[in-house]
Amino acid sequence: MRSLLKRYFLLLLALVLTQGACVGSKAKDVTVGPEVQKIHDLLAKGTYDDALKLAKELSAKTPASPDADQALYLQGYILAYDKSDLESCRPPLRKLLVDFPHSSLLIPTQKMIADTQYWQGHYKGAVEEYKKLESMGDANLALYAKLQIGNSLLLNDKVNDALTRYKDLMDKNPGTPIADSAQLMTANAYLKLQNIPQAKKELKKLIAQSQNHDIQESAQKALRQIEEEASFDKAEHKSK
Asked: CA-CA 20 to 30 A from 215: which of 54, 125, 205, 223?
C-alpha cells in the first residue's frame, strides 16, 4: 500500500504542476529590436549555443543596450529550458530585477526564478520567491504562487502548513481551477500522511464538484486504484 500511495502522490502532484506550467503573466507588449529578433530566430532553429552567446553579448554592451533586459531574460530562459542548467539561469534573471526595475519582464522573470528553485527541490527558497511573485500585482500568478507555496511546504514535509494554504485557496476561490488544484493537493497531502479515508473523501468531493474533465478523470483513477489496492490488501490479510 505504501508504494501505491507514493505513486499516486506523485501522479496527482504531476497533474497540478502540468496545469501550473500553463499559467502565464500578462506582460506588457515588448518591442523586439533586431538583435533580440536574431536571438529568437536562432532559438527557432534550435541553435541554442549561438543564441545564448548573442544574448550574453547584448546584455554586456557598454553603454547598455535598450534591449539589455530582454537579453538577460533570454539568457535565463535558454539556460533553464534549453540547457536545463537551473543553477546558472538565475544570476542573469536576478540582474534583470535589480538593474531594470521598470522592465515589462519583471513578473515572468520572478516566476522563472521561483519555478527553477522549486524544480531543483530548493523548497524553502522557492517559498520565498513565490511570496515575491504573489505580491507583484498579477492576479492569476498570485493564485499560482499561493498554490506553489503550498506545494513547496508539502514537499518539505510541512504537511499541516500546506493543508492550511490549500484550504484558504478553496475557501476564497470556489468553483475555480485553482480551487480544484488545491482540492487535489489536499487529497495528496492526506495520502502523504497515509490517512486513506480522508484522502478518499477529498477525491470524492473533487469528482463531485469539479468541472475540469482532466482533474475529474485523474481523481477517479486515483480513487479506484486506492480502493482496489485496499481490497487486495484485505483479501491477502485474510488468507494468511
From this structure: 125
Which residue, 154, 147, 232, is CA-closest to 193? 154
- The neighbour count for residue 79, using CB atoms within 10 Å, is 24
Is pLDDT above 90 for 39?
yes
Here the cell at position 24 is: 502565464
Higher pLDDT, 115 or 4: 115
Q: Write out the residue range of the structural domain in which residue 160 sits.
A: 1-26+139-230
Whether 209 is in a domain gets the answer yes
Find the CATH number of the domain harbouring 182.
1.25.40.10
Three-class SS of 5-62: HHHHHHHHHHHHHHHHHCCCCCCCCCCCCHHHHHHHHHHHHCCHHHHHHHHHHHHCCC
User: For 200-238, b where at least 16 C-beta lie within 10 A, e where not — what string?
Assistant: bebbeebbebbebeebbebbeebbeebeebeeeeeeeee
Tally of structural domains, the chain = 1
Grid coordinates given for 196: 486513506
> Phi and psi (nearest 5°) for 157?
65, 25
Q: Predicted confidence band at 240 (pLDDT cuts at 50, 70, 90)? A: low
The answer as to whether 38 is a domain residue is no
Q: Which residue type occupies 29?
A: D
Which is nearest to 130 in space by CA: 118, 116, 145? 145
The reply to whether 121 falls in a domain is no
Summarised one tens digit per residue, pLDDT across range 110-123 is: 999 999 999 999 99
